[in-house]
Amino acid sequence: MSCLITMSQKELHRLELIQKIRDGRLTVVEAAERLDLSRSQVHRLLQAL
Known about the structure:
This protein is an all-alpha fold and 49 residues long. It has three helices and no strands. Helix 2 (28-35) crosses helix 3 (39-48). It starts with 8 loop residues before the first helix and ends with a helix.
C-alpha cells in the first residue's frame, strides 16, 4: 500500500533544512536564519520530526 503526501514548496524547503541539521550539514542557527525563524522554533521543528 502506498501513501501520497502532498507538501507546499515552503514545507518541502523546511523539511530539507531540518534533514540537513540532522545530518550535521547545517547548524540550527544557519537554518533559523534561512527560514526566518528563531532557534527555539527550529528546535521545536526538530523535535516534531
